[in-house]
Structure formats: structure tokens, C-alpha cells
Amino acid sequence: MRLEGADWGGVVRTAEIRDGAVVPLAEDGTPVGRLAKVVRTSPTLGERPPEGAVVIFDGPGPVDEQTTLVKPRITPDGLLMEGVATQESFGDARWHIEFRLPYLPKARGQGRGNSGAYFLNCYEVQMLDSFGLAGRDNECGGIYSVKAPSVNMCLPPLTWQTYDVDVTAPRFEDGRKVKNARLTVRHNGVVVQDGVDVPGMTAAAASREEVSAGPLQLQNHDNPVRYRNIWVLPAR
After folding, report:
1. Nearest-5° angle of CA 36, CA 140, CA 94?
2. Per-residue model confidence as pLDDT tens digits over 101-150
3. E strands of 51-100, at which residues?
4. Which tens digits make up the pLDDT trace of 178-203?
5. The whole model's pTM is what?
6. Which positions ≥6 away from 108 have C-beta within 8 Å?
7. Do 101 and 113 touch, CB atoms closer than 8 A?
8. Which domains, and CATH codes, for the chain?
9. Rounded to an integer, what distance in angstroms lies between the CA atom of residue 84 and that of residue 69?
10. DSSP alpha helices (H): ranges in 55-150?
């Protein structure tokens, strides 16, 4: 394939695609470089639960999702669909979630493969096809309406991605909150939220008030987001 009129460092050149790479050409047709395609994957993709972890969903496997999730919907190929919550509540914990965002080429803004992981049913880490976008608090890796990710680590749609999230629940004394919740979020293996203090429930949380333990909710935003390999390691 030949690309005419590409701009390489302020110089208009011709380029060709050869063996999966873009090769810019000088005026006489001589190659002057090679830009190979890079396919990124998360280093924690497929990570198995450590000792003491609770497996929430493992796709076709020994775990019965009917006992770990509230009214789960499963695709014919064994993936978990959006709009589900865990049966059990959790407080301080480390979560591993693998998710796949849909390809919706005509969608814009919050319609681009939207979902979210609500920890303790209170605090949302957004899921959105924000590949190539600015990386805001309402995009992938953002703590919704609280803090944008330090770097946009979103992979292209239809690519499996990971969240590894350390949750510290809020602390209460005599019914009064004395310490906010904190979240550390690794998106595709990179820390994008580092011990962020979350002052209150994020928008659209199902819980009526902040709690020291609550379920995980995977939001239904009418987009076909899919999940697999979900487990949680409660703090000892």
C-alpha cells in the first residue's frame, strides 16, 4: 500500500506499508526509515488469583457465577455482560478485572463503550473507549468526576484490558466518617491513580451512603462491554 502526501517532520513524502510497517520514502524512492506497528498488551492479562483470593467470575470454569453475582448475564462464548453486582460485600481489598470495550465508530463522548467499576458500590473507576483521547476524569482510568488518570493507558477497542485496583475503604467512628476512601488504579499495568483520596461517592453510585464494605458493581450504560477473570483479594 502506498501513502501519498504524508507529512514526516515537516517534509511531505511518500510512504509505503511493507510487512506491517510504514516506510517513508525519499524523493528518489529510497527508504528513509521504518515505523513498525506496536501491539501493546497488559502485563497482568490472565493473572491468576493468589492464595486467599475470592474468584468472582472466571468464564467457562469451575466457579458458579450464580453464587458470586446477582443475576449475571453470560454470552454464548462465556463472557460476563455489563450490569451486574457481586453477592458479597468487600472492604479493603485488591481487585483484578479484565474488560473489553466495544468498537462503536459512530459514537462520541460518553457513548463510546461506556461502563464503570463501582467499588463498595460507591466509587467509580470509569471504563470508556478513550483510545487516543485526552485522558479526562470521565474517561478510561479516571476516578469519575474526581481525578483524571496521570496517563491515558487505554488500548484500542476490542482489546482485552486490565484494572488492578487497591481499595482502602473509608473509616468511621461513632457513625461519622473520619477518613476518606483511597484508590490506587493500575490500568494495563501502569499506575494511573496513586493512593487518590476520594472525598465522597462518585456520580450515579447505587449506594445511598458511603460504607466500610460493599459490593462491586459493573455499570450498565447500554453499551456491550464484556468482562472475564475477575477476582478480589481481601486485606488480612
Report:
1. 105
2. 999 988 888 889 999 999 999 999 999 999 999 999 999 999 999 999 99
3. 54-57, 69-70, 80-81, 84-86, 93-100
4. 999 999 999 999 999 999 999 999 98
5. 0.88
6. none
7. yes
8. 2-36 (no CATH), 54-234 (2.60.120.560)
9. 7
10. 65-68
